[in-house]
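TICKET: design request
STATUS: open
ATTACHED STRUCTURE:
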């Protein structure tokens, strides 16, 4: 992951990041109202070439077989490449302050404790 995504690539990635399952080009078309298949197909190829997505299998759309795609790079990993340490710390602090989930906070605590032990070695 070396480069920033174009507007359309980012639109497609956001749909894939939000999805709970692999999506076909037709699924993406249905989820992005102002895009055409002529835009989706080349951008999917670019995203595969850049290493952001992969084909996870095949599915069916009406009477045709289609490839389904999944992200290889998480949204947080992509965003973190463009933030400095201070901004990342601010995001972490904002997350802690705004969280209302004890489970999420415990998971974060466990990760912090694990990293501290790793740094102590």
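STATUS: resolved
RESOLUTION: sequence designed for all positions
ATTACHED SEQUENCE:
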């Amino acid at each position: 992951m070396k480069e920033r995504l174009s507007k359309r690539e980012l639109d497609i990635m956001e749909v894939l990041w939000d999805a709970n399952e692999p999506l076909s080009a037709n699924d993406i078309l249905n989820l992005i109202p102002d895009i055409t298949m002529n835009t989706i197909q080349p951008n999917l190829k670019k995203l595969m070439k850049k290493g952001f997505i992969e084909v996870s299998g095949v599915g069916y759309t009406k009477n045709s077989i289609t490839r389904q795609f999944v992200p290889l790079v998480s949204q947080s990993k992509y965003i973190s490449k463009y933030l400095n340490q201070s901004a990342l710390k601010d995001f972490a602090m904002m997350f802690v302050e705004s969280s209302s989930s004890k489970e999420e906070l415990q998971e974060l605590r466990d990760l912090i404790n694990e990293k501290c032990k790793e740094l102590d070695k």
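CLOSING REMARK: The chain is about 60% helix and 15% strand. The chain has a mean pLDDT of 92.
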